[in-house]
Specification:
Elements lengths: L6 H13 L5 E6 L6 H9 L4 E5 L5 H15 L11 H11 L5 E6 L4 H4 L3 H12 L5 E7 L2 H9 L11 E4 L5 H10 L5 H11 L3 H9 L5 H8 L9 H10 L3 H12 L5 H8 L4 H10 L3 E4 L12 E4 L2 H11 L2 H5 L3 H30 L5 E7 L3 E10 L4 E7 L8 H7 L1 H5 L5 E7 L4 H5 L2
Parallel strand pairs: 1-4, 1-5, 2-3, 3-4, 10-11
Antiparallel strand pairs: 6-7, 8-9, 9-10
Length: 441
């Protein structure tokens, strides 16, 4: 699959690299695994002289030997004696950048925690010494989000405050998914939605489907639920390292969230344990869930719900992790029957999420959200306002537009409309057929 999107991020990296004619610059690129961090960095770096170092799970001495061989392919540099510490490799590269401009990419940077944590202090000391005399754009890439935040945003860590720029790479938006499907001549609103529903716009998952020429929902599900599918163990591969020994409790909470158990009270009653700390970590440390409140509710209001932000992980916990016993015995037909039974109900909130994204991209509204009243009464799927022009949009999102009732929407909207006197109100029913109104044909 070709390189898509990332226009803003690639421009930032190019601009920062041009600034290294004056002195050194440091950039951090982070985001979940499979999001395309390395591909983006290397795509930009190809336009410049660059060195790429990957921190694999091996000893510091073996890494140094590997890195010295890489450096020798880029520079004519005599190395006298054996270098066994990364700080000496890094110092060598800094000295080379005094006379030559280049990009240094260090990938999976968080792995030094497992190899030799003192390396972070060594890098800080050397960077502070050399920064003003070098022409290096130092780029750190990391996939374990919690560790990357710890390294660069915890004021007790040596590299706190050293990065000139932090780029958090997120999944592709629906418009980019549409471009990918159009390039393969397989775009339909249905294919777009099902790609969005299951991959969440994660580039690597889209690439796997594209490489295997899989576009329809049936073929996607058949591909996922087969022996040796790359998707079956993906959730564990992504999260066990993040969560460590307590991954079981985190997985249980995420499984219940994927099933629509979206309040703390619901989850605690089922797990029979206090989950306040876990929810806080999932939201603020791991950035995997969000706390949702009714549209324009007070920030300290008690009416709130939790949801998993990542579409793929939501799917994985709902249909793969939950039915792990059937997956282990390769009883894929059983899981597919459950998916077929539940898909219509399961997919509804994700169609709402898709339209929230589409409406946000119009740039016509300064607030967008979902509305409900106490006791989950009078739920409205999408509410958006433009305070400058005093406009309000109220939408019901339906997988089948025949189920939309305008009178019901207006009735449910009475209380929220009363809070915005003088606003022009636009009531709409939205379904997949309306995707073209936002993304074009």
């Amino acid at each position: 699959m070709k390189f898509y999107n990332r226009t803003q991020e690639t421009k930032q990296i190019k601009d920062i690299t041009s600034q290294t004619l004056e002195y050194g610059r440091m950039t951090v690129i982070t985001g979940r695994r499979r999001i395309g961090k390395t591909k983006m960095a290397l795509t930009v770096a190809k336009e410049f002289k660059h060195v790429y170092l990957f921190i694999s799970k091996k000893s510091e001495l073996l890494l140094c030997n590997e890195f010295l061989n890489i450096i020798k392919t880029h520079f004519r540099v005599p190395v006298i004696g054996q270098i066994t510490q990364f700080k000496d490799v890094f110092k060598l590269l800094l000295e080379l950048s005094i006379v030559e401009q280049f990009i240094l990419i260090i990938d999976e940077f968080q792995e030094f925690f497992n190899i030799n944590p003192s390396i972070y202090s060594d890098i800080q000391n050397l960077w502070d010494q050399y920064k003003n005399d070098i022409h290096m754009h130092l780029i750190f890439i990391g996939s374990v989000y919690s560790l990357m935040i710890k390294i660069f945003e915890n004021n007790k860590e040596p590299l706190f405050g050293r990065a000139d720029k932090t780029i958090y790479l997120g999944p592709f938006k629906a418009r980019t998914i549409k471009d990918i499907l159009k390039d393969s001549n397989d775009y339909t609103p249905e294919n777009l939605f099902h790609y969005y529903l299951i991959t969440g716009g994660v580039p690597r998952y889209l690439e796997i489907l594209q490489n295997n020429q899989i576009y329809s929902l049936k073929h996607i599900i058949d591909f996922i639920f087969e022996k040796d599918s790359p998707f079956l163990s993906e959730g564990k591969n992504l999260l066990i390292e993040e969560f460590g020994k307590e991954y079981g409790n985190y997985f249980s909470i995420l499984e219940l969230l994927s099933m629509g158990k979206n309040t703390r009270t619901q989850i605690e009653s089922l797990l029979e344990m206090n989950i306040g700390g876990y929810l806080d970590n999932l939201e603020k440390q791991y950035h995997l869930i969000s706390k949702k409140q009714p549209f324009n509710a007070k920030k300290k209001g008690r009416v709130q719900r939790y949801c998993i932000d990542d579409n793929f992980l939501n799917f994985w916990f709902r249909f793969i992790y939950r039915y792990g016993s059937a997956i282990e015995t390769e009883n894929f037909s059983y899981v597919k029957k459950i998916l077929e039974r539940d898909l219509s109900t399961y997919s509804g909130p994700f169609l709402e999420k898709l339209f929230h994204e589409c409406v946000a991209e119009t740039k016509q509204f300064n607030m967008i959200g979902r509305y409900w009243e106490k006791g989950n009464q009078n739920e409205i799927d999408l509410v958006a306002i433009n305070e400058l022009e005093k406009k309000m949009l109220l939408c019901e999102v339906k997988t089948n537009i025949k189920n939309f009732r305008m009178n019901q929407l207006k009735e449910k909207s009475q209380k929220i409309v009363m809070k915005y006197p003088g606003y022009t109100i636009d009531y709409k029913g939205l379904s997949l057929d309306n995707i073209k109104d936002y993304l074009g044909n």
